[in-house]
Amino acid sequence: MASSSSITKELARHLGLLKRRSSSISSNKEGQPSKKKSQIFSYVIVLDFEATCWKEKLNGHHNEIIEFPAVLLELSSGEIVDRFQHYVKPSEHKKLSTFCTKLTAITQEQVDGGISIRQCLKLFEDWVRKWKEEKQFTFDQNLNGRKRCALVTWTDWDLNVCLKYECKRKGIHYPNYMKSWIDLKKTYKEFYMRPPKGLRHAMEEVNLTFRGREHSGIDDATNTAYLTWQMIKDGCQLVLTKSILLNVNNVDEVNKQGKIESKKEKKENKSTDTGSIQQKENKENDEIRTPISVGHQNPMLKNVKITPPLCNCGRRCKRKKVMNPGPNIDRVFYSCPESRDSGCKYFKWEEKLLSRTTMSKQTFTPRDQNTKIQFETLKKRPKLKDACTNLFNT
C-alpha cells in the first residue's frame, strides 16, 4: 500500500502544483538528456564582471569594472572553446575598499597592474573578432551564411547597468553587439518555473556543483556556462531577453526568425504577408527604439524651457542630472545651489515644473493676444490688475 506522502505528491503532480524539476534528475542511465530543442544560437559568450563596491553606498561612488571575464561556449556540444580575462584598473576611485577585496578576492596589486577599461574593450573586441572568423558566427540579424552568437549574463546588471554607465561616464564607445543579450537568471526562472536564489543555488537544483570561488569573475562566468549547457540538455531554448539598441529590429523578431530557421534547417522561407505582424511587433517594442536619454521626461514637454526657480533661500537653483544607476538615471532636477548641510534642501523634478508651466500657460491664455499680458505674473505685477479686470469685462 502506497504511503500517504507518495499519494499526496502524486495528487499534487496531477493538479500541476509541483514545480518542474531538471530532467537531469530523471535522465537515463547513459546520462543522455530526455529533451533537447534546436537552438537559435550556435555559440554564446558568457560575461560576468566584477566591479568596485562598498559596504555602504556612497554619493558619487560609481561601480567600475575591475575584472572582465568571458567564456565562449559552443551549444551543439557544450564545449568551452576559449576563455578571456583581464584585470582592469579603476580611474574614478583607484583604491579598492576592504569590502570589495574580501568579496571578490581581487587585490590592489592586481588592479594596479591591470589595464584601462578602454584597452580591455579593445582587446575583447579583438578576441571576439578572432573567433568570429574562425567559427564563422555573427551577432547580426543578417547571417550571410554564418551562425548566430549571443551574449549571456546572470541578470541584466553587467551590461545594462555596469558597463553601459561606465562607458557613458568615460565617453567610451559601447559596441552595438553588446547591447542585446540573454539574461540566464530570467530564462532559468521561466523554464524551471521557480526563482533561483543565486547562481550556486541554481546549479545545485539541477545537480551541478559550483567549481571555484564565488564572486571570482572567471569562475562565475565558467559556472554560468556549465548551467547554460545543462539547461539546453533539459530542453530549454535560449532566446534574447533584453535589448537597449535604438536602431535595430526588436528582440522578438530576432528570436522568431531564429526559431523558424532552426526548424527548417536554415532553408529559405516561403514569402508570406508579414506586414501586419511586423507592424504589431514594432508597436509593442517602441521602448527599444526610444532613445534612453528621454527617461522620465514627457516628450510633449521636451522643447519647453523654463528659468530655474528660486529655492527657499532666495537663490537661483542649479539644474542637475541623476548619474547614479537606477530607476531615476538621467532624470533632471533643480536643487539649492548650496550644500546639503548649509542649504535649504530645496528639490524639484524638472518634468513637474515643466508640466506646471505648460498647464498655467494653457489655463490662463489671454482673450486678446495683442495685449501680451501673462496672467501667471499678476502676483508679481500689481499694477496690471486694473488692466486685466478691464480686459475680462470687455
Which descriptors apply to this entry?
394 residues; alpha/beta; Nucleotidyltransferase, domain 5; three-stranded antiparallel beta sheet; 13 helices; 11 strands; 35% helix
What Rg do the Cα atoms give? 28 Å
Overall form: globular
Q: Kindly state the percentage of residues in helix.
A: 25-40%
Instruction: Calculate the mean pLDDT score and round it.
Output: 78
Low-confidence stretches: 22-33, 269-302, 363-380
Distance between the termini: 97 Å
The CATH architecture of the largest domain can be given as 2-Layer Sandwich
Strand content: 5-15%
Helix run count: 13
Domains counted in the coordinates: how many? 2
Please provide the ordered H/E string of secondary-structure elements.
HEEEEHHHEEHEHHHEHHHEEEHH
CATH class of the largest domain: Alpha Beta
Count of DSSP strands: 11
CATH fold-level label of the largest domain: Nucleotidyltransferase, domain 5
| Structural class computed from helices and strand pairing | alpha/beta
CATH superfamily of the largest domain: Ribonuclease H-like superfamily/Ribonuclease H
Largest sheet: 8 strands, mixed
